Amino acid sequence: MAFWTTLLIIHGLLAVALLGAITHQAVSAWMPVRSKAGNFVTRFRAVPSTSYVTAIIVLYVVTFVMGAWIYTQYRFTSRLALEQLRFFKTVGVFEMKEHVATIGMILLPAYWAFWRQPLSEDYAAARKNVTLLLAIIVWANFLVGHIANNARGFGS
Amino acid sequence: MMASSKLAVFTIVFGVAYAAIYVISTELNLPLLTYHPVIGEVDFLWTPERRGPAMYWYGWMLTSLIGAVVLEFLKSRSLSVVAALVVAAAISFFAPTKWNQRLWPGWVCVVPIGALGVLAYYLTPYFTR
Description:
The complex is a heterodimer of chains A (156) and B (129). Chain A is an all-alpha fold and 156 residues long.
């Protein structure tokens, strides 16, 4: 159990890094700062969006693979307990998490293509939209993961 | 604005095709493989539970990756060898440039969001019990 718990913690930490990176990029893509950075919010928006692309793709793929690995253990331990406790909503949102994660994964090639240097004006809107959708997906999965773990996590 | 780069067109078509095939393979339960986590065994295509739950998610993703766009292919599981990747590549690289130029990049967001809507709808029994 210690192995899976360690894996889950690493998965969670990677998710935090991904969450930070994609949030930074989405905010700076949607609300770019033209003037010199001032307060915390302005500095948060002022990051160079393009520098996050590779990190976000790598973090997403690694977090996804780790999650898919942990999922094998979840399926016959935590999930069975959740079903016995009749926590069907928790099971349901976790089912949705697997689909959302997959959809996020298949957005990555387009995300990468839209952010390729030099940035094409043709994809300015698509670039912003895909980044925002990816940010929503990462946030949703992060929160659902926490809900499921809080309901009946590893070692509980 | 329409897509102009062949690489971008390929990724858009791939995303759209994968999302559509994923919904179909999930709802018709057409996994390319079944994983039995308790005994650690993998079966080809769909198989029922054996000494513990069966996992189809990996199989659905594989089906979507290498599954056919045409429903006929999906009906016949043994013929599910045509990849969404191949279809996407074929469309983006061999289709006339005019077709590519007509492709709206927004589809790569619209179709996956629609796919998520369908998948969420099929999960409603979990929330209405």
